[in-house]
Every structure is written in structure tokens, then in C-alpha cells.
Amino acid sequence: MSTTTPPPLLPPTPARTPAARRRMPVWAWILIALVVLVVGVILSPVFALVSFAVVITGIVALARGGRTWLRFRSRTAAAWVTAAAAMMLLVTGSISGAILSRSPDADAVAFAAASPSPTAEATERSIPTATPTPTPTPTPTESPATLVRVVDGDTIETSAGTVRLIGIDTPEQGAWGYAEGTAELTQFLSAGALTLVAVPGRDDVDQYGRLLRYVRVNGHDAGLHLIDTGWAVARYDGRDGYGQHPQQAEYVSLDAAREMPAEPAPEPAPVAPAPPQPAEPAPAPAQPAPAAPTNDPQFGTCREANAAGYGDYQAGVDPEYNWYRDRDGDGWVCER
């Protein structure tokens, strides 16, 4: 009798449980959404076209109840995809419309408004922008002073200090008009007592520490006199950032009617005298012809007598006739 050995008892195999899916964290979904949003804004025209195509495909699938190139699994999926595409089309279409609605003319106008005009820049550069050091202005008063010396046409030294005349400018040293303007101011100030007048609303001194004053002699203004004679121009006033002064209108009006005297043409350089030419020597006196000897020494021939200065002997007159031969018989021998 055979016996069958039963198989060994094994522990039951545990049932496999499906692995749990790992869920993406919330920050990852937010990051993906932001990236999709940025890409959607940049490529909004392209997304608008794609969304439009998906919407049309979804509508066709829902209407026909069949599949399209998107291979929808069900009508529910087609409806959801169509709705999402419609929403995407609405968003991207709005962004594309906003981008395409910007007019080049508007950009050009905005650029022109933001860009400074060359003419405006040139005008701004041509106007001096000096900003004198602000100092308190004293109460306008007239104070007598004693002249020490005239520095130039618009600056003097007085017992009150160095004074710069307000509202004028004269030529600087080395330029035409410097000596003339200085001499004109010196002559004007020598006519009487000197009075300095402070100006309200202007600085008391300039950046060099000079007093800013009107200068008057016997009630006459030195600046106005220099402009009237043409040796000064109206400057350093309200037109170029130094503040208006009470006599500015009068200075400017007179300056427009006067011009600086023209610089005289330089005198021609003196011409050096030409060196004296040596006198031509007096011609030598003509040598007198040697006097012929008074007596013919009786040469051998007439040729020799003629060579020695003798000749022209006539028969019956000159005894030398008989010494020589009269070849032609004309009564003359040794004719020269």
C-alpha cells in the first residue's frame, strides 16, 4: 500500500497592492502655471491660432459624434477640451489684440516726446549756466568811496574794496578795446566824487570776493557811460542767469544801439631806405691826338710816312713833295 506524501505547507503569498502614486507638490504646479502663463503671453498669437483650431475641432466632434484628428475618447473629453481651448482662445486673443493694436505712429510720437530736440539742446548749451555763490544782499544804499586804481574797464579798487561793475562786460587784457575801455573808465572816474550803489535782489559779492555795485560820479552811471561809448556790452544780467538788476532794460536797449569802435588797421611797417648806389665814375677825358711832327724825317715810302702821321704833300707848296714819287701825276703825294 503506497502512501502519498502531502506537499509541504507554504505560507500564503501576500497579495500585491498597487504602488501609491506620488503627488506633485503645490509649488510645482504653481511654477508650471507661471511658466505656461509667461510662454502664453510671449507666444499668444501662436496659441490663439492653435486654440482656435482646437475649438473648431471640438465643435465638429461634438456635432458629429465621431472622432477627429485629436482622437477624443468620449464626448465628455471633447467637451472639456473644447471648453479649455475656448478659454485659451479668449485669453490669448485678448493679449494678441492688445499687442497688435499698438500703432507705430504712437511709438514715434512717444519717442519724439522723450527725445530732446537738437535745437533745444543747442539753445540750452549756448546759454551760460553760471551760478554765482548766493550771499545776502544788503539794504540798497549809496556809499561814498575813494578810488585807489582802475584795474580794467569793469573793475576798480576803492577804499571799500575791489568793486565789479554790475551788468556790463569789457574786453579782457590782450584783446582789442582793453586799453581803450580802461582809459575811458579812468577818465570818467576822475571827473568827481565816487559813489557805490548796492542793488537789491542781487548778490553782494561775486565768486571772487569783489563787491557788486553800480559806480556813479556826480550822479552819472559808469556802466551806462561805457556802453554808450562802445567799450562795454550789457551782460551778466537776468538773460544769462545772474539775476535782473534795476537798470538792465536801459543797459540792454543802449547796447543794441551802440557798437564797439572798429580796431584800426595796423600801420604798415616802415620801408627801409635803399642803400645808396655808388656814383658812376666820371668818364676819363679824351686823349688828344698826338700832334704830328712838324718836319717829315723823310721816310723811305709814303706808306711809312702815312703810318707815322705824315702825308698830303702838294707840289710847289710842301718841300716833302720832292722826297716821294707822284705816281698818278696829280701834284700830290702820300695822300691819306
Can you offer a commentary on this structure?
There is one protein chain. By secondary structure, the chain is α+β, with helices and mostly antiparallel strands. Among the domains are: 38-97, no CATH class; 142-257, OB fold (Dihydrolipoamide Acetyltransferase, E2P), CATH 2.40.50.90; 302-333, no CATH class. 36% of the residues lie in helices and 12% in strands. The protein has 9 helices and 11 strands. The chain has helices at residues 26-42, 44-64, 75-100, 104-114, 118-126, 178-189, 222-229, 248-257, 302-307; strands at 142-145, 147-152, 155-158, 161-165, 168-169, 194-197, 211-217, 220-221, 233-234, 313-314, 332-333. The strands form 3 sheets. Strands 1, 2, 3, 4, 6, 7 and 8 form a 7-stranded mixed beta sheet that branches. Helix 7 runs parallel beside helix 8 (248-257).
Task: Describe the secondary-structure layout.
Layout: H1 26-42, H2 44-64, H3 75-100, H4 104-114, H5 118-126, E1 142-145, E2 147-152, E3 155-158, E4 161-165, E5 168-169, H6 178-189, E6 194-197, E7 211-217, E8 220-221, H7 222-229, E9 233-234, H8 248-257, H9 302-307, E10 313-314, E11 332-333
Parallel strand pairs: 4-7
Antiparallel strand pairs: 1-6, 2-3, 3-4, 5-9, 6-7, 7-8, 10-11
Helix pairs in contact: 2-3, 6-7, 7-8
